[in-house]
Structure formats: C-alpha cells, structure tokens
Specification:
- The protein is α/β, with parallel strands linked by helices.
- The protein has helices at residues 3-13, 26-37, 49-58, 75-89, 96-103, 106-115, 130-140, 183-201, 221-236, 248-252, 254-260, 278-291, 317-337, and strands spanning 17-20, 42-46, 68-70, 121-124, 151-157, 169-173, 206-210, 241-246, 272-274, 295-302, 308-310.
- The chain has a 6-stranded mixed sheet with strand order 8-7-9-6-5-10, with helices on both faces. It has a 5-stranded parallel sheet with strand order 3-2-1-4-11, sandwiched between helices.
- Helix 2 crosses helix 13 and helix 8 crosses helix 9 (221-236).
- The structure holds coenzyme A.
- Coenzyme A is lined by residues 92, 130-131, 134-135, 138-139, 143, 149-150, 176-178, 299.
C-alpha cells in the first residue's frame, strides 16, 4: 500500500484533533475543507470566525462550517490559556500580562491547546517562518521524556528499481533543525528518527549513524563524536537495531558492509540514516532528491511531546493536506508509546 494511502487509513481509524493557527489563510482553508470532507481529522481553525466563514463562502468550501473555530481575540480564550503559558514560562521571566499578549499569538495559542489536551497536534508555517513555528512549540509543548532536542526528518521515497531501505523508503535525519549536535544530541536524533520510521514510514527501524569512517577506518574528533553517539543511543534503547560509525555505503550496501563492517547488525540494510551534522543532512537530502529523482517528504519534526509540523511558505494545499495526515499519525504513535 502506498505511504499516504496507509497514513490516511490510519488517521481515519483514530481521528485526531489538529489545530491550524493560520485559520484564515486560503491554502490552509482549502486543505482543511478537504480533510473534513474526507473524514480524516477534526479541524480546529484559529482566527476570526466571521472572516473565516466569509472566505470559506467565497471559496465555496462547504465543509469549513464543521470545523471548530477559536478566536484569538476572545477574552474567554485568553483567560483559559494564558495561565498555562504563564506557568510554563514564569521561570523564564514572563509576566502575567506578557503571557496574555503571547497567548493571542495564534502559533502560541495552538500549542497551548495541544499542551492543555484540547488538540492533538498543530500544523503551521504557510505564513509564518520556521523559526517562529518552532519557537512556540519548543517553549510550550517541549520535548518527549528522555529527549532534549527536536530535529527534522525527511522520508525519502525511492523510485522503483532502487533497492535500498525498506519498502522503498529511507528516513534521513536531522536535515532541518540542529546545526551541530553533540554526541548525546545525535543519539537522541537517532532515537527520534527510529520513532519517525515506525510512526510515519511504517517500517521497523534499522538505524545507521553515519560518518566518513567505518569502524575505526579514520581517526578524528568528529568520528569520536559518532562513536560516542552510537554508544549512548544503544544505552537509550538497547532493543533498537542500530550501528555506527558507518560510512553511507557500508550502511546501505550489503556487499560493502560485508567487507567494511562484517559484524554490523544492520548487514548493510539500514533504513534510517542519521547524519553527523545539519550541513551533511540538509545537503544529502537535497542531492538525493535531485540526482536520484527521489520524493522527499518532510521535514517531519520529531522529538516533541506532541506533534507540531512546519510548512514551507511556498506550500500548496496538497502539502498542507498531507502534513495534517502525517501529524495525525505522529500523534497516534506518540500516544501509543506513552
Ligand atoms: C527554532 C529556533 C528559532 C530557535 O532559535 P532561538 O530562538 O535563537 O533559540 P533559543 O536558543 O533562544 O531557544 C528558544 C527555546 O527553544 C529551545 N530550543 C532551541 N532549539 C531547540 C531544539 N532543537 N530542540 C528543543 N528545544 C530547542 C531552547 O532550549 C529554548 O527554550 P527555553 O526558552 O525554554 O530555554 C532556531 O533553532 C531556528 O530558527 N531553527 C530553524 C532552522 C531552520 O530554519 N532550518 C531550516 C528549515 S528546513
């Protein structure tokens, strides 16, 4: 079954509540209407109800009336969520008045709804920068237990005939967030990427932490970091099939693995590739996408206690639709792991 067919079916079977802070943005409204029409998730739009209904009417979006609409200017809404923000941020110096003002920011309000258990995940970024979307999530939703760093994975959907990964999928991480992870952070990225492989790709993770060295073939501080990250990741999850430090060919080509790392539990069949820095991860996913004619789905933000996903400001309604579906599946996965 194709990736999005499976994700859609799973989302329909376990309906989640997804909050869209950019509630009066036309592409967002179009995607939300389709999600409701297809019975995939419950949609919460943040925005002025009158403006949203007016736009939906003009755009002939007949299902938007079934969405819940939360007005960020409504004092009752601010009264409900501002105390939570104040509690979460008071040690960082926020005042009660500042908490009220920040709660009226839709990106924060959406995260507060998730934190309060009134929504299961958030999708934003059609109008806001990545930094703003992430900052609200970092400050309000925070990370999963045992994880202190949020990272971004891409699902690389390989064309037929390219026999790598599992079911034609490789998961790449981190390609979006952490410029220069320490060894413990790299270990966390590996653990989070394994969860993304399970929750979104639907594959049993086989994780390689990559380097320019395979099992001591080169010596450098950067190699040591990957060796240490591998050790920590093993400690964090001893049951995970995981290995490092490996070069990328030893990770995904069985014959190369046999020669360079004959004892690797991956046997050259890794399906999750963890890069030692954001430079490598970001460059690698873009090159593979272009040179290999590979579809790159993401970034999927991983490591948060509840899912928030960021859109590109150039996104299409179809991208928002798919991101909502992925977010539903992450929410289902995170809850089932609790
Ligand atoms: C999100 C981002 C804006 C944070 O930058 P910042 O505001 O300078 O970050 P700060 O260091 O002030 O951190 C703000 C909060 O986020 C937390 N944080 C920062 N990076 C984090 C991460 N990767 N995971 C978890 N929390 C993180 C900090 O701990 C801090 O929390 P606190 O306020 O409770 O102490 C920055 O990491 C960013 O812009 N990332 C996006 C990178 C990007 O654009 N990538 C390309 C997209 S594909």
């Amino acid at each position: 079954m194709k990736l999005f067919d499976r994700l859609t079916r799973c989302a329909k079977e376990n309906p989640q509540r997804i909050v869209l802070p950019e509630g009066s943005e036309p592409r967002t409204l179009t995607a939300a209407d389709r999600i409701i029409a297809d019975d995939i998730a419950k949609i919460i739009l943040i925005g002025d109800p009158e403006e949203i209904y007016h736009m939906a009417n003009d755009m002939n979006l007949t299902h938007i009336k079934e969405a819940e609409i939360v007005n960020p200017c409504d004092e009752k809404v601010i009264d409900k969520y501002a105390p939570l923000l104040y509690e979460l941020r008071k040690t960082k110096g926020i005042t009660e008045e500042e908490a009220r003002l920040t709660t009226a920011n839709p990106l924060y309000l959406g995260c507060l709804m998730v934190k309060a258990g009134d929504a299961d995940g958030q999708v934003a970024g059609a109008m806001n920068t990545t930094g703003n979307v992430l900052r609200a999530a970092f400050q309000v939703i925070k990370t999963q237990p045992g994880i202190s760093v949020v990272s971004g994975a891409f699902l690389m959907l390989l064309p037929e005939g390219l026999n790598y990964g599992t079911d034609g999928i490789l998961v790449f991480a981190d390609c979006a967030v952490v410029p220069d992870p320490s060894a413990p952070e790299l270990a966390q990225i590996a653990i989070s990427a394994a969860q993304t492989a399970r929750d979104i790709a639907g594959i049993e993770p086989r994780v390689a932490i990559l380097s320019f060295s395979t099992k001591g073939s080169a010596r450098h501080d950067r190699v040591d970091k990957v060796i240490e990250a591998t050790r920590i990741a093993h400690e964090m999850n001893p049951d995970l099939i995981l290995d490092g430090e490996l070069q990328s060919d030893a990770a995904i080509v069985p014959s190369v693995c046999n020669k360079k790392a004959p004892n690797s539990p991956l046997n050259g069949r890794a399906n999750v590739l963890v890069f030692p820095s954001l430079e490598v991860g970001n460059i690698a996913y873009k090159l593979v996408q272009r040179l290999g004619n590979v579809e790159a789905v993401g970034p999927v933000l991983q490591g948060l206690a509840a899912p928030v996903n960021d859109l590109s400001r150039g996104c299409y309604p179809e991208d928002i639709y798919k991101t909502i579906i992925m977010t539903c599946n992450q929410a289902i996965g995170i809850k089932s792991n609790k």
